[in-house]
Structure formats: C-alpha cells, structure tokens
Design goal:
Low-confidence stretches: 3-7
Radius of gyration: 20 Å
Number of helices: 6
Structural class: mainly alpha
Helix content: over 70%
Length: 152
C-alpha cells in the first residue's frame, strides 16, 4: 500500500511540475514581449523606422496572448488568440473616444502604453500579427518531440 502512495505522490508532483513549467514560460514570454515592445518605442538611430512603427503594437498583442494563457492555462489556444486580438481591437477602437477622464488616464506613461492615443488601422494588423505569433509559437513549442521531423 505504501508503494501505491509513492506512485500517487510522484504522479501528483509531475502534474504540479507540468503546470508550473508552462506558467513560467508564459511569464518569460510576457517579460520578453514587454521589454521588446517598450524598447521599440524609443527613437534610436539603430532601430529601423518600420520596427519603431509596428513592433510595439505587435508585442502588445503578444503580451496579451501570454497573459491570457498564464491566467487561463487550461483554455484552448484559439481562445487566447481570439481574446488577445479582441481586447486589442476594443482598446484600439476606444482611442476614437476622447472623454476627459480617459484623456487624463492616457496622459500618464502607463495609461498611454495600455490605452494608446491615436486610432490607426495599421495597428489592427499588428494586433493580428502579435496574436498569431503567440498562437503559432505555442503550437510549435508544445508539439511532442516525436512529431518534429528531422531535417537532413
């Protein structure tokens, strides 16, 4: 009977480790997306203009994807994809509204990062791209080793 208890306890440990590992990777992904997104916002001579224009919004959606996967790890990937893209689109369209209280929130650095300032159609494509990057990256990273084909 003690042997069965050891097996059950070992199985429980594996389950706990299986839940902790992906969450750690989501936190790591959020950290990288945040750092790249904020780092791309600055005017720098060594960062190409196209990256300054589009990387921040792409990383914003990628961050949201990772955040949703962190908060809801048992939800399907497509739900996180739709959620990240949907939240990004709602925030983008909220930039068409300019009530005083919202403008006050946008006047702070964090408010500007989270809510944005100006509506741009190109941002919608960036949000789609960022959500897709998260979805596709997670698809390929979660495949069993046996499904990965060897390239000769």
């Amino acid at each position: 009977m003690a042997f069965v208890g050891v097996i059950i306890n070992q199985t429980a440990i594996y389950r706990i480790q299986a839940k902790i590992r992906p969450r750690f990777l989501y936190v790591l992904g959020m950290t990288v997306a945040f750092a790249l997104g904020v780092g791309s916002r600055g005017e720098s001579p060594w960062i190409p203009a196209i990256i300054v224009s589009y990387a921040g919004d792409t990383c914003y959606a990628l961050f949201l994807y990772m955040l949703l996967r962190f908060l809801l790890p048992s939800s399907p990937r497509y739900a996180a994809f739709l959620g990240a893209f949907g939240i990004s689109v709602v925030v983008e369209f909220s930039q068409l509204a300019h009530p005083h209280w919202l403008e006050v929130m946008r006047s702070f650095f964090l408010g500007e990062l989270l809510l944005g300032t100006d509506f741009l159609v190109s941002d919608l494509f960036c949000y789609l791209g960022g959500s897709l990057i998260g979805y596709i990256a997670e698809y390929f990273l979660n495949r069993p080793v046996s499904q990965i084909k060897r390239i000769n």
